[in-house]
């Protein structure tokens, strides 16, 4: 009798950069995925191999939704080889099937130049199958004349291309169709794995009720609350967006407020200054617990993200806003990418801000919003299914 995929349990060791809760998005992602795999009766543990938030190697138990996860945290070091040697020693008595490498170039090197890391990973794999999740790829040039970023990105691209030959990963995942397209150009075979929300919450919102509430507010000229959650990226057209939002607010006699939640980064002061200069009400909550963040999102009407639209599928903040019923406006720079028009990129419930069309968006919003349907459990099951295909 053939054993079903559900019955074939796996033991997976995840490799990521840092594991400080709320301080590293990929670390939070890895913890949540590992926790869900354990709840599905698989085994999972995590090594934070270049952890920026610990001063000494330490084994500890971390938790996701009360699920304990065995973890090893090794301090960030310029001696990457030593960190892999410590990892190898820790793995010596771990009878795991898979090594899952969560790749973000700047997690393992301050300049994102991870020379030699493939060789180190191959050494510690020792017969385990290798999986790679590409959360990010390489830096993109900021203008047609930006030689520095073009060269920087090309070096990072070559490093990623070398992983395919040196590591021969059995399964490769990524969150965005754009990254999938880019990796396939490097001869990778890539599976798409959608992203779940990066916060845990017991709050459940029906998107239809959110739309009814927003429509009611617009009809009665009640205040519309926008929320910015997650890191703010450079180069966004926030000046024209806030100006247009202020004009719309005054002409329609609808008060507007913008709430900032979480670790927004260095660009946040720039955004707040434009909001204030356009007489928009600003509230800054800063870093908060998951439940407080969830309350802030669920009480808002519309979310704002600055993640470039081509990369919107990799934003855990966008996934969190959508999970809590929010439509999202993408106020972001355009990536300068050759042949980007060939990549079919769309995200339900996310509108790419276009100067001069804010009023059109608001007028049509209550008739055409479709929420995110991605759950942590569904992603974990897809992850296991894809690994089983080569087991």
What is the level 1 CATH name of the largest domain? Alpha Beta
Task: Please provide the count of β strands.
Answer: 14
Task: Supply Rg.
Answer: 22 Å
Strand order of the largest sheet: 3-4-2-1-5-6-7-8
Secondary-structure class = alpha/beta
Report mean pLDDT, rounded to a whole number. 86
Strand content: 15-25%
Number of domains: 2
What is the fold-level CATH name, i.e. the topology of the largest domain? Answer: Rossmann fold
Per DSSP, the total helix count is 13
The CATH architecture of the largest domain would be: 3-Layer(aba) Sandwich
Protein architecture, described:
With about 400 residues, the chain is α/β, with parallel strands linked by helices. About 35% of the residues lie in helices and about 20% in strands. The strands form two sheets. It has an eight-stranded mixed beta sheet with strand order 3-4-2-1-5-6-7-8. A six-stranded parallel beta sheet has the order 11-10-9-12-13-14, sandwiched between helices.
Search tags:
single chain, 391 residues, alpha/beta, Rossmann fold, eight-stranded mixed β-sheet, six-stranded parallel β-sheet, 13 helices, 37% helix, globular
